[in-house]
Amino acid sequence: MTVSLLQRILQEREDMRPAERRVADYVGAAPSEVIHMSMAKLSEICSVSDPTIVRFCRRFGFEGYQDFKLNLAQSLVPSAPFAYEQITPQDGIDNIVRKTCRNSLNAVQRLAEDLRPDEVAEGARLLQAASWTGIYATGISEVNALDAEHKFQRLGMRCQALLGKQRQWMHAEGARPGEVTLIFSQSGHTKQMVEIAIASRAGGARVVAVAAGDSPLARVSDVVIAVRPYDQTELMTPLASRLNHHLVTNMLVTAIAIASGSEFPDQLPALDSWQTDKI
């Protein structure tokens, strides 16, 4: 995995002298400002000398401040492969905003590069042809199941988000031909979701999984829309990974809308049940 300049600064911060640490803290908190700032201005803000700024830049392999700023600017642009910048207790609100946005942008870019359109097309074909769709998820992925239910129902599809182990088993064991089981799973290793897929197929339903491509769930599904998982998904589920699953739902909805002859496929119709009073 490629380590960005900002990540390197964070990693080496504790080994720096106090003066350089002040520079590291400011660069980490306001990188978009630093790339437009003169060395004299940065020295003034950080209460350090110009030579300290030069030493700081050379610490990371740059000849001088201008080279450092150029690389810093490049590190602010979403890049592949995806690198998740962990938010730390030392981060101020500026850094929280920047890292959250950058992680999300990087995630979307990686999804665009990795996702196979034919998988989305095949998943949309099965969902459109289904007599009924059960949408399954557990844990934080339940948010994705509810989002899919809301959007599919607005297309007029018969579907339901099934949450809770007992409810899921009741429906999976009663699965029938013509139905589709749609499963959202970050890792594709959740035992409950794998067993749901197996039970659904045993009853004759088709299974579409939005999950890691090389996973136990993928191996027992009819169609896999492969979304690469993120590190340590059992310990943390970054917003970026959930965002990608939401985007896959939007792709499926749009593909189904186009196949159904919608004039505005990327704009869901506002059905009566979803309308609200406006002030």
Q: Which descriptors would you attach to this protein?
A:
single chain; 279 residues; alpha/beta; Arc Repressor Mutant, subunit A; 2 domains; 13 helices; 53% helix; elongated
Q: Could you explain the architecture of this structure?
A:
The protein is of the alpha/beta class. The protein folds into two domains: 5-111, Orthogonal Bundle (Arc Repressor Mutant, subunit A); 117-274, Rossmann fold, CATH 3.40.50.10490. Helix content is 53%, strand content 9%. The chain has 13 helices and five strands. The chain has helices at 5-12, 18-29, 31-34, 39-46, 50-59, 65-75, 93-114, 117-129, 142-154, 165-173, 191-202, 216-219, 239-259, and strands at residues 132-136, 159-162, 179-184, 206-211, 223-226. Strands 2-1-3-4-5 form a five-stranded parallel β-sheet, sandwiched between helices. Helix 12 (216-219) links the parallel strand 4 (206-211) and strand 5. Helix 2 (18-29) packs across helix 4 (39-46), helix 2 (18-29) crosses helix 5 (50-59) and helix 7 (93-114) crosses helix 13. It is elongated and about 75 Å long. The N and C termini lie far apart (50 Å). Residues 232-236 have low confidence and may be disordered.
**So, the CATH homologous superfamily of the largest domain?**
Glucose-6-phosphate isomerase like protein, domain 1
Query: What is the average of the pLDDT values?
Result: 86
What's the overall geometry? elongated
Distance between the termini: 50 Å
Helices and strands in order, then pairings?
Elements: H1 5-12, H2 18-29, H3 31-34, H4 39-46, H5 50-59, H6 65-75, H7 93-114, H8 117-129, E1 132-136, H9 142-154, E2 159-162, H10 165-173, E3 179-184, H11 191-202, E4 206-211, H12 216-219, E5 223-226, H13 239-259
Parallel strand pairs: 1-2, 1-3, 3-4, 4-5
Helix pairs in contact: 2-4, 2-5, 7-13, 8-13, 9-13, 10-11
